């Protein structure tokens, strides 16, 4: 393998590893709720998508899921293994992949600039997560319970995470100008 190929592969691999570690760390910052805890993962997953683009963002989330599937304690409450991808949180975990990809795709089209477009970007990412997470919970528990325990309690926290995402992007833009 020549030097150009090695360096071309090294940077994205290092970014993906760092992003997966950030997602794992954000999984441990949580508000305990049943059957799905509220974590900062969705915010970090969407930020990874924005920062890395849709391809590397989705690949980073896939790496994170593979780490957990292989037994590394990266999921909320330091859970790991295949059971975590079959339990109540599975729909949200799987939804991280399209959510990161969507965030990266929208960011590449200018949706990470301004005030309202980033808010729409983060809201759209959360909608993807709610769609996959609630659908999985509906399959497990029925639609009424899924909405009651997997959607409604998370709306206020998601609004806060949307605002945090917008503020973080604005802050980062300010640092780049300085």
From TrEMBL:
Keywords: Cell membrane, Membrane, Signal, Transmembrane, Transmembrane helix, Transport. It is found in: Cell membrane. It holds the Pfam family BioY. Its main location: membrane. The chain crosses the membrane at residues 37-54, 61-78, 90-108, 120-141, 147-172. InterPro entries: BioY (IPR003784). Gene3D superfamilies: 1.10.1760.20. It is a multi-pass membrane protein. Residues 1-27 form the signal peptide. The keyword Membrane applies. It comes from the Bacteria. Belongs to the BioY family. This is Biotin transporter.
